[in-house]
Each structure stands twice: as structure tokens, then as C-alpha cells.
Amino acid sequence: MDNDILKVLYSQNEIKEACERLGKQIQKEYEGKTPVVIGVLKGAVFFMADIVRAADTYMQMDFIDVSSYHGGTKSSGEVELVTDITLDAAGRDVLIIEDIVDTGQTLKFLMDTFANRGANSIKVCTLLDKPAGRLVEANSDFIGFEVPNEFVVGYGLDYDEKYRNLPYIGVLKPKIYSHN
User: Fold this and answer.
1) How far is CA 55 from the centre of its chain?
2) pLDDT tens figures, 82-116
3) In Å, how far from its chain's centre is CA 86?
4) Residue 103 burial (CB < 10 Å; 0-12/13-18/19+)?
5) Do 117 and 89 touch, CB atoms closer than 8 A?
6) Which of 9, 30, 106, 145 is deepest in the core (most CB within 10 A)?
7) What region holds the Phosphoribosyltransferase domain (predicted)?
């Protein structure tokens, strides 16, 4: 897999340090509260695990699965709810954990969904923020790294369900996905 990577953007160590930093920020933000922490499948699984372990605070965890990429390298613009959470978000403080905020369409969909369900508050923690890709306004409260407008994989992020298990985040060589 390493041979498919053009360059490494963030090493395993840099990701670990970012997770510890974000975990402490989240711990401080939710002191005295018990937020519902919602991981966006599948990309945020590794990130969410590292974040919640770094935050010494009470929380409940759940997962939601939405899709907008459908195996490609660009968002289709249509967000589909694949699997919903099992916990009730009404009257709760919701923290959405995302792997990357690119176009913002998925994040806006999620924020609107939980607002419509009566969440008390909605905050977002993303590992990667790609403002150059933004098509709709959707901002994160906690950000690990700002990334350039390149196709990145690793540490949960994929191309065609591959590369998620890389321990770092890297730019995928265009020749790998240019046939699409």
C-alpha cells in the first residue's frame, strides 16, 4: 500500500499528538456534561477511538453511517443515511466525530438531522478539514489538521474501501484513481 502513496501528510505520531490535543479540548468543553459522541462510519472509527480515550469525561457513544462518495474520489452531492444511531439525541449535547470535512454536504446533513431531532447542542470534531473543497457552509469546532485539496487516504480514510488501515495520512497517487 505504501507504494500507492505520493507523500505522507501526517505521520502516526503527529496524528497521536493531534488526538491527545483534541481529546483534552473536548474534555474541557464537556466538563460536567455527558455528551452523545457520534462517530461517522466507516472513516472516523480509528479517530473516534483515539479521541474518546484521550478525553477523561463521561460520554455515550454511537455510530451513524452516511454515504456521499459511493466509491469515487468526489462527493456525489447526495447524502444518504445508511445506518442511524440507536440513542435518542433529543435534549442531548451531540458531538459528531468526522474523519474529514470536504464539501461540507455530509456534515450539514448530519447537523440538520440532529437539530431537527431536538439536540440541545451540536458540535463537530474532525481529524481533517479541507476548506478548499467546501461547497456549503459547515464548520467544525475541533480540528486536527487543515489539508490541501488533494485526495487523502489512511487512518480510516479510504479509496474504494482500501487504505483505511494505513497508520498515517497520505496523498494517494493520482494514477491509482484516475481511471474513474
Assistant:
1) 17
2) 999 999 999 999 999 999 999 999 999 999 999 99
3) 19
4) buried
5) yes
6) 106
7) 11-159
Residue type, 103: T
**Distance between CA 119 and CA 115 in Å, rounded?**
5
Neighbour count for residue 139 (Cβ, 10 Å) = 15
Provide the pLDDT for residue 180. Answer: 53
66-69: which pairs have CB atoms within 8 A and are 24 or more residues apart?
Answer: 66/40, 66/106, 66/109, 66/110, 68/103, 68/105, 68/106
DSSP 149: S
Question: If 0-12 CB within 10 Å is exposed, 13-18 middle and 19+ buried, where does residue 144 land?
Answer: buried
Count of residues in the chain: 180
From the list 70, 59, 57, the residue with the least C-alpha distance to 37 is 59
End-to-end CA distance of the chain: 19
Which CATH architecture best describes the domain 12-68+75-148?
3-Layer(aba) Sandwich (3.40)
Count the Cβ atoms, other than its own, within 10 Å of residue 4.
16
Burial of 76 per CB tally in 10 Å (0-12, 13-18, 19+): middle
* Whether 93 is catalytic: no
Low-confidence ranges of the chain (pLDDT < 50): none
